[in-house]
Amino acid sequence: MGRSKLEKFNVIAERENVLQAGDELYGQLAGKWNDLFFENNNPIVLEVGCGRGEYTIGMARLHPEKNFIGTDIKGARIWKGSSMAIEEELDNVAFLRIFIEQMEEHFAAQEVDEIWITFPDPRPKDRDIKRRLTSPRFLDMYSRIVKPGGIIHLKTDNLGLYEYTLEMLQERKVKDLIHTPDLYNSDLQEHTMGIYTTYEKRYLADGIPIKYMQFKVS
After folding, report:
1. CB 47 within 8 A of CB 78
2. Which member of 59, 204, 205, 209 has the greatest number of CB atoms within 10 A?
């Protein structure tokens, strides 16, 4: 582990906009995010596997009337997003350092208004199907923590994950499913708010179409 990572871990351990194991409120916020952390009643938008937090930050800039929480296990990545939030004085942003499988330990039933899944690991091998963030076990989890009528979004560069997710959603007969295999040559661009991640820009520069879908599981 390089020194830079250790330094970043030490920094985020002291930040109020990052929650991780060992913090006073860690594991205590399920059902209480708005009361104990944000101190308002604004809608909660969750980014699953937020990486550097570019989407979380981008949405927070555009929507100060909402609360945004980015989740990821990589502390060095969360450092970047939490740094941007501090620099821009965004008080409607939090980062939660957890494995995605732990989500229900930190969010109560129907506490979240909206979920974004942005460029997750596609897990292409058959043995890893259960680890895909759009596999049935994760879809079930999202359906429990999202409010009825809450929207879930997926952005990916991976055609295999897009097709797999589409099949899963059609089998489940989810509500209000819209999708495209080529976001930026479709009429669905407005749904993604013009926010691009670093990796997304690289995919586009390489001529790889971005796939997008949104749906309701409740």
Report:
1. no
2. 59
The answer, as to whether pTM is greater than 0.90, is yes
Contact between residue 214 and residue 142 where contact means Cβ atoms under 8 Å apart: no
Do 147 and 217 contact (CB within 8 A), yes or no?
no
Catalytic residues: 121
Instruction: Copy the structure tokens of residue 88.
Output: 């821009």
Is it true that domain 3-156 has CATH number 3.40.190.10? Answer: no
Q: CA angle, corner 171, sides to 168 and 177, nearest 5? A: 75
Residue closest to 53 by CA, chosen among 7, 139, 143, 116: 116
Give yes or no for a contact between 38 and 92, defined as CB atoms under 8 angstroms apart. yes
β-bridge pairing 93-97 and 18-19:
parallel
- Each domain of the chain, given as residue ranges in start order, spans 3-156
| C-alpha pair distances (Å), 9 with each of 1, 6, 27, 70, 74 | 11, 5, 19, 17, 10
Reported as a single tens digit per residue, the pLDDT across 180-218 is 999 999 999 999 999 999 999 999 999 999 999 999 976
Q: How far is residue 124 CA from its own chain's centroid?
A: 20
Residue 189, token pair as written in the block: 């661009």
